[in-house]
Prior knowledge:
Elements: H1 6-10, E1 15-21, H2 32-42, E2 47-54, H3 56-67, E3 75-81, E4 86-93, H4 94-104, H5 108-123, H6 133-149
Parallel strand pairs: 1-2, 2-4
Antiparallel strand pairs: 3-4
Helix pairs in contact: 2-5, 4-5, 5-6
Amino acid sequence: MKAGPPAARATRPALQLSLQFADARHRARLPRHRVARWVRAALQAPGEITVRIVGADEGRALNRDYRGKDYATNVLTFDYAHEPVVVADLVICAPVVEAEAREQGIALESHYAHLLVHGTLHAQGYEHDGVPEAEAAAMEARETAVLAGLGVADPYSRRGT
Length: 161
């Protein structure tokens, strides 16, 4: 597969990606080039991003310690800088992602793509909780546009089904 014309490649933000697997169950489904593609698609500036795939215990402990919620969640974003370089850690809980994909009847890879895009948007200051509806809608619109560009169906179109 060709990478595209030089001009198209030049417009993508630079990305330094660290990919860690504390829970290796999905390592084969998350090759570095695929994770980089998903994260880069959501970046609007150069980024230094660490993606860590964790198990339920670590996911729960981080969510409890940093958000005060005593359960494992799908993605946690720790953003340290938005500009001139986006610096963040994205923590994804493999068992939660797996269960959600199964419950929603979607491909595991599509759900990982969604959560990596979602977390990367948070890393750049986008929010959806505790903000005005227009701000939440702007994040959702950006998220669905990025996912569409990746060939991933709108995750919000399944609401209420």
